[in-house]
Design brief:
binds nicotinamide-adenine-dinucleotide; alpha/beta
Length: 290
């Protein structure tokens, strides 16, 4: 298949390389100077998108997605699938999908979970929004780049699933870290805390699979000096998107709001920038109640 791929960064680069390695004809474009194995480079986004049967974008945010869409939608042929895998706000995803549909294209918003490791290994999870026809056209490529793709509903449903999941993730990580810090102050051994909670009603993915305490539970960024993994600033981005969506949908999300404020404080005023999002544990460890 002839694929255009725009945004060849930490995620998009290995995703495009996997499509090329699977035998597809991939033409890519990135504003930065990049070289991706098996991928031919175009001089502009429009050049990468023109004549493609499917165009994939993997960009930093909704404003950039809107700008790229304005450039490429007019040059794409009717019936081409436009698959955006970036994490963006639901409003941008829906606006871009509406323009693409009006131009006779098949838009899919398909943000991913699995991080840079999943992008390289081809084990991402895709959560997709769009028509059944659009999803069916993109699905064989999801199979190459990932291990699972869920068709969540109409345009915007993929982004909605992503930010709801990551709002739970941010809130749960904070809860897990503050509980460890409390356990420390109560003199409870961290390993015992893990042994109990990981098999009791407080268990969660953040405790059981990504434990924020070094030397406890399975291997995680805590065992590697809190190098990301999933960086605190990316957690903050997704939490902000959840609050933007909650605001526009008039949803009451008090814990999501509080988690956003805590990661904001951590990233912008403390030591969180560039650390894994589980570094909330050493943050709480150092603090007292006031
Ligand atoms: P990145 O910054 O490494 O890559 C983005 C790329 O887009 C860059 O190479 C940049 O040069 C390029 N770009 C920016 N504007 C452009 C334009 N107008 N035209 C062409 N290229 C342009 O970011 P990333 O880590 O690859 O993340 C991409 C998306 O995936 C983001 O929306 C992010 O939230 C999401 N995501 C990231 C992770 C992760 O762990 N990194 C996990 C899940 C989802």
């Amino acid at each position: 298949m002839k694929i255009g791929f725009i945004g060849l960064g930490n995620m998009g680069g290995p995703m495009a390389a996997n499509l090329a390695a699977a035998g597809h004809d991939v033409t890519g474009f990135d504003m930065a100077d990049v070289a991706i194995e098996g991928v031919q480079l175009a001089d502009t986004g429009a050049e990468a998108a023109k004549d493609a049967e499917i165009v994939i974008t993997m960009l930093p945010n909704g404003a950039i997605l809107r700008a790229v869409a304005a450039e490429i939608v007019p040059v794409m042929s009717t019936g081409t699938a436009f698959v955006d895998c970036s994490t963006v706000d639901v409003d941008s995803a829906r606006a871009v999908a509406a323009d693409a549909t009006n131009a006779g294209l098949l838009p899919v918003d398909a943000p991913v979970s699995g991080g840079v490791g999943g992008a390289s290994a081809g084990t991402l999870t895709f959560m997709a929004g769009g028509s059944a026809d659009a999803f069916a056209k993109a699905d064989p490529l999801f199979d190459i780049m990932g291990q699972k793709a869920v068709h969540c509903g109409a345009s915007g449903a993929g982004q909605a699933a992503k930010i709801c999941n990551n709002m739970i993730l941010g809130v749960t990580m904070i809860a897990t870290c503050e509980a460890f810090a409390l356990a420390d102050k109560l003199g409870l051994d961290r390993q015992k805390m893990f042994d109990v909670v990981s098999t009791s009603s407080g268990y969660s993915w953040t405790m059981n699979a990504y434990c924020p305490a070094p030397g406890v539970g399975p291997q995680s960024p805590a065992d590697n000096g809190y190098q990301p993994g999933f960086a605190s600033e990316l957690m903050l981005k997704d939490l902000r998107l959840s609050q933007q969506a909650a605001q526009s949908a008039d949803a009451d999300t008090p814990l999501g709001q509080h988690a956003t404020a805590l990661y904001e404080q951590f990233v912008e005023n403390e030591t969180g920038l560039g650390t894994d999002f589980s570094a909330m544990l050493p943050r709480f460890e150092k603090r007292g109640r006031s």
